[in-house]
Design brief:
By secondary structure, the protein is mainly alpha-helical. It has 12 helices and no strands. The longest helix is centred in the first third of the chain and has 33 residues.
Length: about 280
């Protein structure tokens, strides 16, 4: 799934014009937002009625259907012409991307985004099921409807970048997520759900903006640039669960929320490095 995600981002970057790329990336990220909601609900329903094994079979078939859909709908993409007499090796492309300070900043932002997102939506579940909230298993499944507003708002990320630039869009979305964090500490289900909505809207919006920026900032080998970005993105989720899990167990939920705030703050600082270039608008 990570490979398919990377290749699709590279395909959109190659096939869409500069004017259309922002909207295309926002639409694709919106599809992923919807999958977070629908996939969780469908998975719970299938596992509940048909068992855990049937759940895996169901999603295996769904992925095969996706492969058939790609085969019949996605046009063959022509590789970009490489500068020089010979094409660069993948390692040379990676080094070139990592030497680009703007791309390095974007990779770091991706790391921080999933760090914050996973930290929030993994450990808030433990807060919801324990007293005083004591949310039951069925109610906990419906909690994921907090992703529903993001399905609508993420579509607007491309327009926001075109109108205000990448940096203001990132700062605004990260600030919105930060506003939601204090609500996660209140002993009120409504407040926590609102906080989750704000964190979801903010992080998904920031993800769409950062993803589009990587495609614009990488003048060549966009597939490898998207690959590095997503490697950093998923690494942020891995590190976030490991670090914030220890903080949650040893210190508590407020400290865990503090760690999430630090991650959003680092992302905001890294956004300062996203400067104006001929191929990337800030």
């Amino acid at each position: 799934m990570a490979s398919a995600f990377t290749l699709t981002l590279a395909y959109l970057g190659e096939e869409c014009s500069a004017a259309d790329a922002g909207g295309a990336f926002a639409a694709y990220i919106t599809g992923n937002v919807a999958s977070n909601l629908i996939g969780r609900l469908v998975s719970a329903a299938v596992a509940d009625h048909l068992g855990l094994a049937s759940n895996f079979y169901f999603f295996a078939v769904l992925n095969l259907v996706g492969a058939v859909l790609v085969y019949y709908t996605v046009a063959q993409s022509t590789p970009m012409t490489q500068m020089g007499s010979a094409a660069r090796s993948p390692f040379a492309a990676w080094i070139a991307h990592l030497r680009n300070p703007q791309l390095r900043a974007a990779f770091g932002i991706g790391f921080c985004i999933l760090f914050a997102f996973i930290g929030t939506f993994t450990y808030v579940n433990f807060v919801l099921v324990r007293p005083p909230l004591s949310v039951g298993p069925m109610q906990l499944g419906f909690v994921y409807f907090v992703f529903l507003p993001s399905v609508v708002t993420t579509l607007l990320a491309g327009r926001a970048v075109d109108r205000w630039g990448t940096r203001p869009t990132l700062w605004s979305s990260l600030a919105l997520a930060a506003v939601g964090l204090p609500l996660l500490l209140l002993p009120s289900l409504a407040a926590i759900l609102l906080g989750m909505v704000l964190v979801g809207v903010g992080t998904f919006f920031a993800q769409a903006a950062a993803t589009g920026f990587v495609s614009h900032a990488a003048t060549a080998d966009r597939g490898s640039a998207s690959g590095i970005y997503l490697a950093c993105y998923f690494a942020g989720g891995l590190v976030g669960t490991a670090i914030l899990g220890q903080i949650f167990d040893r210190i508590g939920w407020p400290a865990c929320v503090g760690g999430i705030m630090v991650s959003l703050s680092v992302a905001a600082v890294l956004a300062l490095r996203l400067q104006m270039t001929p191929t990337a608008k800030t």
